[in-house]
Design brief:
Layout (H helix, E strand, L loop, with lengths): L1 E9 L3 E3 L11 H11 L4 E5 H5 L10 E5 L15 E4 L3 H7 L5 E4 L3 H9 L5 E7 L7 E2 L11 E8 L6 E7 L2
Parallel strand pairs: 1-6, 1-7, 3-4, 3-6, 4-5
Antiparallel strand pairs: 2-8, 7-10, 9-10
The structure holds NADP nicotinamide-adenine-dinucleotide phosphate.
Amino acid sequence: MKIILVAAISEDGFIADSNGKVKTWTSKEDQKFFEDIKSRYTLMVMGSRTYNLSPKKPTAGVLRVVLTREPEVYKSQVIEGQLAFHNMSPTAFAAAYKNYDACLLLGGGLVYEAFLDAGLVDEMYLTKEPAILGEGTPFLPNKSLNLSRWRSVSKKKLNEDGTTLTHYILKK
Ligand SMILES: NC(=O)c1ccc[n+]([C@@H]2O[C@H](COP(=O)([O-])OP(=O)(O)OC[C@H]3O[C@@H](n4cnc5c(N)ncnc54)[C@H](OP(=O)(O)O)[C@@H]3O)[C@@H](O)[C@H]2O)c1
């Protein structure tokens, strides 16, 4: 299964402001890109903090998997085939869902870092927004991204404000 990381990052390396918000500083062009890419995949994985801050919109034919150490807390929210809660490592996740061709990795920072550390990310779509947040949730909580392992296959300017979208593929 191919795992594709998608993230919008501020100029100073954050994925959420100090209130956990994303839409307040990301561009409408990036928000459109995010909706478009989500519409092309049927499996997505995210951390519980991201889930708790996201709109709750189950979609038929799309399975969202939320990682949490306490899946029992979310028991009443499970929707068969659409919303699942698991306490599993990235490696266990990849093994459990190996029948899918691809999965979107929706974050947040702890989950991005865990999948990158496990060597399970094949591609990344990183939007760089010109906003400077000063504080918030870092893209990777414990390290900086080592781009030497990645090949940039496309870089697009999304608007006149300086938002860029780069598609990276892991060098094999
Ligand atoms: N800009 C962007 O592109 C973007 C994308 C996604 C999210 N965000 C933002 O990022 C913020 C959240 O990021 P975050 O780093 O604080 O948290 P997060 O990665 O969304 O979630 C962390 C939680 O996920 C669970 N978890 C992670 N790995 C696990 C594993 N291997 N097994 C079991 N559970 C696991 C734990 O949940 P429990 O505590 O329940 O055990 C952990 O506390 C939010 O503000 C969100 O809006 C931004």
